[in-house]
């Protein structure tokens, strides 16, 4: 548990305000704790069973309204983890591009559409994300991640507004997203020359 606290303290500056550190700690813990549903309400019940309502409000504000940069947080995490990994397992040797489908029901979660879902091995309602990981034979560290927004979602202004999808976020294919993630890794100085991907 102390390692987790040390880890959170190293990226606290990237959250923009000290009041976000506690909810961020709770959100991370909620993602790691057992439980199928990883939405804010069930996570609040797991991390604060005696104060679910207030925990729910804090977690929801962090995720939906607080203006912190996910890129800055991910950059701080990447730097911390790569430094630790380099000491015990060596430098990354390859970039891995992958897309991952998350089964979802309903129509309100951003990007949910009937599309291929690797977890299910068929087309179904799901969200899909493109990820970038740094790896060698000893480790794989995710360093980039972006939700794929299908064309019908991208063109639906009403749904975008309700879900607070930024107006500057335009439709991009999965290969275009992958190239953007690689460019960001190059800028950050964390990109080996070899890239592998699942076709």
List the helices and strands and how they pair.
Elements: H1 2-11, H2 21-32, H3 40-47, H4 52-64, H5 70-89, E1 94-103, E2 113-117, E3 122-135, E4 140-148, H6 151-155, H7 157-162, H8 174-187, E5 194-197
Parallel strand pairs: 1-5
Antiparallel strand pairs: 1-3, 2-3, 3-4
Kindly summarize this structure in a few lines:
With 199 residues, the protein is of the alpha+beta class. The chain has helices at residues 2-11, 21-32, 40-47, 52-64, 70-89, 151-155, 157-162, 174-187, and strands at 94-103, 113-117, 122-135, 140-148, 194-197. Strands 1, 2, 3, 4 and 5 form a 5-stranded mixed sheet that branches.
Describe the structure.
There is one protein chain. This protein is α+β, with helices and mostly antiparallel strands and 199 residues long. The chain has helices spanning 2-11, 21-32, 40-47, 52-64, 70-89, 151-155, 157-162, 174-187; strands at residues 94-103, 113-117, 122-135, 140-148, 194-197. A hairpin with a 4-residue loop joins strand 3 (122-135) and strand 4. The longest helix is centred in the middle third of the chain and has 20 residues, at 70-89. The protein is globular. The N and C termini lie far apart (39 Å).
